[in-house]
Amino acid sequence: MITIENSLITVIALSTPLIIAVLGETISEKSGVINLSAEGTIMICALFAFVFGYLTDIAIVGLIAGMILGSIIAAFLSLCDIKLRMDQIAVGFVLTILCSRLSSYLGQDYVRISGPTLNKMPIPLLSDIPFLGNILFNHSLITYISISLIPLTWLLLNKTTFGLSLRAVGENPNAAKSRGIDVQKIRFIGTLIGGALLGLSGAAFSLYAKYGWSEGHTANYGWIVLAIVIFGGWNPFRAAMGAYAFGLLQVLAIKAQSVTLALSQVLPLLPFPLMIFILIFIQYINRKDSSSVPLIIKSLIGGNQPESLGKKLPKEL
Amino acid sequence: MNFNDLKINFIRFILSILIIFFLLLSFGINPLDVTNALFIGSFGSFEKIIRTILVWVPISMASIALIYTFSSGMWNIGIEGQIIMGAIGATIIARSFLGDTFISPYIQLFMALAFGGFWGLICAILKVKGGVHEIFSGLGLDFVASGIAIYLIIGPWKRKGIASTSGTEIFHENSWIPTVGNLDFPIFLLIVIILVYVFTFYLLSHTSFGLRLKATGINFFATNKFNFSSERYIIFSFIIAGALAGIAGFSQVSGSYHKLVPTISGGFGFLSILLVLICSRNIFLTFIISFLFAALIVGGSQLQIKLDLDHSLVGIIQASFVLSWLILQRVNLEKKILNIFSKVFTK
Question: If you count residue pairs, one on A and one on B, with CB atoms under 8 Å apart, how many are there?
Fold first, then answer.
């Protein structure tokens, strides 16, 4: 029993940064922008958060620093996309390479030193519930933030005017414009929020889930985020489930290490083939008469890809 | 490329270099020292020139591969996976009974072509038949390929006694890519890459195939007015790109490492995506810039020795070079500078 409990606690702790990043990327993609800089943004924000936390010795400062840097990178990407009309995928890709190399270079002096970490903050009363209390309510601040962000993102996207405009811009910028929405502004804000969450996720890595800093500290997590967003079908709840599933996969991989080395190395790569299958399925549903697919399967694996995802804004907007 | 384009590209090149110089200065590094160290590190001796060529061939090959997919308007992020698959294909031959025969490298070349091409084909079919955005499928296939490589290295192809991710057993010397001279000048690779350059140049600018490929990239939907299917040309472009990337993998595995390692692609696939962003379809520019990037990578080792700077500085230089190039291209600063120049000189 204790091992299951511990494993579940590890799963939730490991998934914390991923959930934040996945939610951020979901918001960004809902506005039509594939933030391909996720890999680099997470990495350099992890470094910055750690450095700021280290210098001030307050972990919260690190979280804020990570968020600010994440939004700056996203703002840069968004300006290139909206104002200069450059290809968002090209810029995002270059930013990924630039940021991850910058993090290796700037982070040399901070490799494997101890800095501040986010302490566990058990929620009074709730954490006393047997079994569940320990799993759900005995974590650090950032985990609570990550969990509460899941419904908040859903509310933002589905129950607010801003969310409606955001989705409209992501689906059809021309139509959104004719409804009086400032397309450029909404797209900018959407990317910005996404970037801030990516930055926060990086901070969560270096200050909580994977203490400290080393070269390539968060390597491949950015790509995994892109995969999980699709796995989640651009739905915050399902995306979060995907992130937890990936956390579970990681824990299994660690456990499998003692059995076979091969399995433990290959297991964490599982999200990628899954991503491809989900995408094929989504397209299949969209093409065929979708009524032939059972509703349960559709809501579990299907998804609603934003129509203008990854495309440039039309010239006249 | 006409003379005016050349002038604009030249000014853009100088401006990008200047931006990098400012960036280095802001890090507190003397850019001239860095240039010097990089130059000595990559061209300082005959051995270093050979190493530069060994890095240049795969980068260059992958960049040409991307020219095809770029022409058909596709993002071939799956190139890393195609390189890895090419390397795996070559390794299969090198480890088989053919491994110690002198024909091994030539058969490896064809296996690498086939494996890389197949991996490209999957991406194309997912795009054309499945409607999957090529970025996501490419990314997925990259990681699947690297998963396969890792599995093979620590599973079936592990070295005797130890299962580690450090690589397979070194190949038999007959499986190495043929070289000449005491210093192992990689003559075979050079012949292959030059053939690929000539072939690509001819195909893209002198045949209807090249024209149709470009037409597909410019307007996917207009092509059926000319009685050919865009989808077919997308598939062609991915197969060719995958096959060429496979050769890059072959060059890595049998030319540089002489064994299969998990990081066999060396990040050259992603690097060549950066490259094709600035070169687009320009083969001459690809030739020059890929050589420059290869020299940067090989010279990077000298940074550590001479100036005590981390190797990652090379990546920063490459990425910021591409970023400034792309932005300058968009802002069109060069044209303004050129206009000012022409005004000054006409006065």
Answer: 122
Residue A35: closest C-alpha in chain B? B135
Amino acid at A108: Q
The alpha-carbon gap from B315 to the nearest alpha carbon of chain A, in Å, equals 6
Quick check: A98 and B320 CB within 8 A? yes
Q: Which of A54-63, A263-272, B158-167 tops mean pLDDT?
A: A54-63
Whether B319 and A273 lie within 8 Å, measured CB to CB? no
Per-residue pLDDT for B222 more than 80?
A: no
**Chain segment A247-291, per-residue pLDDT in tens:** 888 888 888 777 777 777 778 888 888 888 888 887 777 776 666
**Residue A2 confidence (pLDDT):** 58
Query: How far does the CA of residue A266 sit from the closest CA of chain B (Å)?
Result: 5
Query: Contact, B78 vs B124, CB < 8 A?
Result: no
Across the interface, whether the CB atoms of A98 and B165 are under 8 A apart is answered no
Classify residue A140 as exposed, middle or buried by CB count within 10 Å of its CB (0-12, 13-18, 19+): buried
Domain architecture of chain A: domains with CATH: 2-301 (1.10.3470)
Quick check: B340 pLDDT over 80? yes
ipTM of the complex: 0.90
pLDDT digits (tens, 9 = 90+) for B260-304: 998 888 889 999 999 999 888 889 889 999 999 999 999 988 888
Task: Please indicate whether, in this complex, the C-beta atoms of B315 and A223 are within 8 angstroms of each other.
Answer: no
Cβ contact A153:A20 at 8 Å? no
Which letter does DSSP use for residue B185 in this model? B
- Angle formed at CA A176 by CA A172 and CA A181, multiple of 5 degrees: 145
* pLDDT (0 to 100) of residue A157: 94
Q: Which residues of B touch A80 (CB under 8 A)?
A: 327, 330
CB contact at 8 A, A22 and A239: yes
Task: Select the highest-mean-pLDDT range: A121-135, A188-202, A282-296, B38-52.
Answer: A188-202
3-state secondary structure at position B265:
coil
Q: Cα separations (Å) of B260 from A16, B99, B148, B252?
A: 35, 14, 12, 9
Best residue of B310, B313, B325, B333 to probe chain A, by most A CBs closer than 10 Å:
B310
What's the gap in Å between the CA of B132 and the closest CA on chain A? 6
Phi and psi at residue A309, in whole multiples of 5°? -60, 125
Q: Which residue has the higher pLDDT, B191 or A128?
A: B191
Q: How far is CA B3 from CA A205, B8, B9, in A?
A: 51, 9, 10
CA atoms within 13 A on the CB side of B112: 26
pLDDT of residue A267: 80
Rounded mean pLDDT of chain B?
89
CA distance B166 to chain A (A): 13
Three-class SS of residue A222?
helix
Nearest to B316 among A85, A98, A279 (CB): A98
**A110 chain-B contacts, CB cut-off 8 A:** none
Instruction: Please compute the mean of the pLDDT values over residues A62-88 and round it to a whole number.
Output: 94
Residues in chain B with CB shorter than 8 Å from the CB of A43 are: none
